Amino acid sequence: MKIDADIIIVGGGLNGPALALAFASGGLSSVIIDTVPLATRRKPAFDGRAYALSLTSVRMLKVLGIWDAVQSEAQAMLDIKVTDGRPGEGAAGQFVHFDHNEISEGPMGHMLEDRYLRRALLDAVKASDLITQIAPATVEAQDITASHAEVTLDDGRVLRGRLLVGCDGRRSGVAMRAGIARTGHDYHQSGLVCAVSHEKPHNGVAYQQFMPSGPLAILPLTGNRSAIVWTETTERAGLINAMSDKDYMEELRPRFGDFLGKIKLVGKRYSYPLNLTVANRFAQHRLALVGDAAHGIHYLAGQGLNLGLRDVAALAEVVLDAARRGEDIGNELVLARYAQWRGFDTAALTASTDLINKLFSNDNPILRTSRIAGLGLVNAIPALRRDFIREAAGLSGDLPRLLKGQAI
Ligand SMILES: Cc1cc2nc3c(=O)[nH]c(=O)nc-3n(C[C@H](O)[C@H](O)[C@H](O)COP(=O)(O)OP(=O)(O)OC[C@H]3O[C@@H](n4cnc5c(N)ncnc54)[C@H](O)[C@@H]3O)c2cc1C
Question: Which residue from 19, 64, 89, 257 has the fewest beta carbons nearer than 10 Å?
Fold first, then answer.
């Protein structure tokens, strides 16, 4: 049986290319298939998305040789300030200040615009002899046998590998065709996303302000610019998004406050519906799910991509170690190690994000008083504060080698 590559990856977004590069660093070949043409995915326009890459995600990008290409566009996230607020009233007096100087490893992470990361990953993929890209092409069918996995493309081509990985996003067809059901719910909220420029420097500080309708994140970009991820109920978000730029900014200003001076909209604005969707299994014989295909979470945690990159690091390590031991890389026992490794981490983050959203996205006076007192308490206890900082930096838990900054 002719094998086209060791691994067939469906989805060339962010996690698919990162996974192929991780496999290539250990000598395994991949084919990446994506419906969207390469030139479109590599598009340079700002689409509102920027990632809060944790310290460990940055370590991994360094090992994979991506960081040099994006470093000049990345803004170090030095501090995080969390407050409770109401539009027009500004932030409550109590807040938590997470300062990166409290840990020895450096900045908790870096903000990086989607366009720079995407381009750097796709360029590195193109330069690799071990990775083939097929796009535009859509996977329409898949078949898993005892010896291999195969996919059929919309042009009739059939590709075979030892392992099939779904990096095909929240509505993963790979999972669906494999009969893997999903669990989740709609938050009835939408994320309003844009970037603003401001008069005063942000000094690398990220702000998370919890409003009754949902959190408002102000995240530092390079220069005097910040990315805004502003959560509102779906109905309200629809109304705000339909407004003119001028009226939109009139809505944003009282929530944002004036601590960075005058603010101005830069670029377009976007709105994304928020829901939770987690696959009931992350792996089975010759098949694994990675990134949003495994778990799509609320943006409030800013952890969606970090969680995906943790999957990438764990799956690459499990599979490469198995290959070195002479094991079949598609064997379900090999892949069960991956599913077990990532399952707990995902469940913990999903549950905590859900809880924080429920607890903070309302104007109940009792809950508000308790929240403000709670923030004050966390701020007053250094050990607790340090735990949160380590969590935000991605330093807690059983880290795969790539996230420790080691080659695999
Ligand atoms: C506004 C916004 C802000 C965010 N902010 C953050 C943040 O600050 N920090 C963070 O960590 N995360 C953030 N996220 C989440 C992050 O963007 C996602 O977790 C990440 O993009 C998921 O990448 P992926 O590669 O798993 O999936 P996707 O990016 O969804 O890619 C899936 C790919 O699969 C392809 N595909 C699907 N089906 C097929 C098929 N049948 N055949 C071939 N190809 C197929 C698609 O064309 C697509 O290119 C944010 C998301 C949004 C929307």
Answer: 89
